[in-house]
Structures are given as structure tokens and as C-alpha cells.
Specification:
Length: 278
């Protein structure tokens, strides 16, 4: 069965968000682990957490995904920025694990001039101070488009991070279709080849989630602009092949296309229809 959802707002609380997932006929969701541009978060009352767990259980949600804030840069060479990122990842792993959320994804970060190797060393150090042996939550590294000094634009960089951490078995990868396409992995003409490369460098079992997005920017552009499914340079056909590929079809898919919940609901319905008619 297809596991699909979208990035959802938690402004109305997490139980309300889960209700909205059901209403849009999705069966998973991605939420921010805290305010994406600031540093605030709110703690939920037990009653609300119970309601959330109840909805998710009754409706058989697939693995849920929390996304770390964009302001968190674990690769940074700036002390303040780095300390902040270390605090955020440590707190949010505890908070999201306590909610029973299966995966937390983060952008590996931008080295902003200190070089990729130094940036990767910072990421590893930051993960090691945050991850504990007893946590159930898996940390997902997101594949990036490579804008600016971003790390995670190649599978090899993600491998370096995983190889360096103390608990590598708690690390996985989230493949963002828009980002890999912009990074220069040709999922349109050679999806098999890209997945083979992923398998050789990282191993397919590490692939735990897919961000399903079209790309406004062309192949290899290293620009990160999401487009609605079918309205970008990747196209509906190629994205349907991602959804149905034997190596991917059982993973959870999350839309991060430029829509609100109503639009995401329509997009999910359209994808289901296309899959049924093929
Ligand atoms: Fe992301
Ligand atoms: Fe993404
Ligand atoms: Zn993006």
C-alpha cells in the first residue's frame, strides 16, 4: 500500500494536524520539529499527545517524519551558529523520539567557507553529542541540491557522515527528488542508474524516506526551487516511476510542493488516480 503524505503545519496542535492528514486521505505526515525559522517550540499536553497517538494508530499511519529547522547548521564554522545547531538537534531528537516519531530529517548544512571536510567533521561531532544508544528515532540526512556551500550534494558526502558517527545504525537517508535532480543525479532518464549508485555508495537499506517534489530549476542547476508534481522539469511520468520503483514503492513519500493542505490533498488524489489508471 502506498504511504503518502505532505509537509503539514502544526499551528493548530499535533492532534489537529493528524486529523487533517486523515481528512486529506493521506496516511503519513511531515512536520517541523520546531519553528522552522526561529528557535521556539511548544510542549504538548498529555491529552493532546494521546489524541494524536490515537488517530495515528486507528488510521494506520506509516512512519512519521519530523524536519529540523532551516536555521540549524551543524556544518557551520561559526561558534554561535554551531552551538545553537548542537542544542537544537539534541533537544529535538529527545522531543520527537518521545512523541514516537520514527524519523527526523535535517539538512546536513553549509560549510560557509571552512571546506566540506571541516563541515562534515562538525556535523559528525554535532550528531555524536546528540544521538544516544537508547533512542528509537532514526536521523535522516537529506540529499541536497548543492546551492552555495551545501554539504550532502553527493551520496559520498552522506556516506562520510554516516561512517563517522558513533551510532551509524541510527542514521538513514531521505531522498529529495527535486534536490537530487538539481544536484545532477538523472532520475528522469536513468532512475535505475541513480539507485544503483546509491546502493553502491550507501546501500539501499539506508534509504528511509522520499521527499516527492518536482523541480522548477533544470537538471544539474544546483538550485533548490520546488514545483508542483508535473509542473516542473522532472515531470509527472518520472515522479510516478519514483513512486512505483520496486526499490522505493514501500517507502513513505512526503510532498513538499508549493500548496496548502487542500492543494496537497488534491495532489495526492491525482497521484493515486494516475497510479490506478496505469
Ligand atoms: Fe528539507
Ligand atoms: Fe526536502
Ligand atoms: Zn528543497
Amino acid at each position: 500500500m502506498l504511504t503518502i503524505g505532505a509537509h503539514m503545519s502544526i499551528a493548530g496542535g499535533i492532534a489537529k494536524t493528524a486529523k487533517n492528514v486523515v481528512a486529506m486521505k493521506a496516511n503519513t505526515m511531515q512536520i517541523f520539529s520546531r519553528n522552522p525559522r526561529g528557535s521556539n517550540y511548544r510542549n504538548y499536553e498529555q491529552k493532546e499527545v494521546d489524541a494524536f497517538q490515537d488517530i495515528r494508530r486507528r488510521h494506520g499511519f506509516g512512519p512519521l517524519l519530523a524536519h529540523a529547522p532551516y536555521t540549524m547548521n551543524l556544518a557551520s564554522g561559526n561558534e554561535k551558529t554551531y552551538e545553537f545547531a548542537c542544542m537544537v538537534i539534541q533537544e529535538d531528537l529527545v522531543r520527537m523520539d518521545a512523541l514516537g516519531i520514527e524519523n527526523l530529517v535535517f539538512h546536513p548544512g553549509s560549510h560557509t567557507g571552512i571546506g566540506a571536510d571541516a563541515g562534515i567533521r562538525n556535523i559528525i561531532r554535532g550528531l555524536n553529542q546528540a544521538m544516544t544508544e537508547t533512542q528509537n528515532i532514526t536521523v535522516l540526512l537529506e540529499t541536497m541540491s548543492g546551492k552555495g556551500t551545501e554539504i550532502g550534494v553527493t551520496f559520498e558526502e552522506l556516506r562520510q557522515i554516516r561512517d563517522g558517527v558513533r551510532f551509524p545504525e541510527n542514521i538513514g537517508v531521505c531522498l529529495d527528488t527535486c534536490h537530487v535532480f538539481a544536484a545532477g543525479y538523472d532520475i528522469v532518464h536513468d532512475l535505475d542508474g541513480v539507485l544503483e549508485e546509491f546502493d553502491q555508495v550507501l546501500g539501499l537499506p539506508l534509504l528511509r524516506a522520499v521527499h516527492l517534489n518536482d523541480s522548477m530549476m533544470p537538471f544539474g542547476s544546483h538550485k533548490d526551487r520546488h514545483a508542483a508534481i508535473g509542473a516542473g522539469e522532472i515531470g509527472l511520468d518520472a515522479l510516478l516511476k519514483v513512486l512505483t520503483h520496486p526499490a522505493l514503492k514501500d517507502l513513505p513519500f512526503y510532498l513538499e510542493t508549493p500548496f496548502d493542505e487542500e492543494g496537497h490533498g488534491k495532489e495526492i488524489a491525482m497521484l493515486r488516480e494516475e497510479l490506478d489508471s496505469r
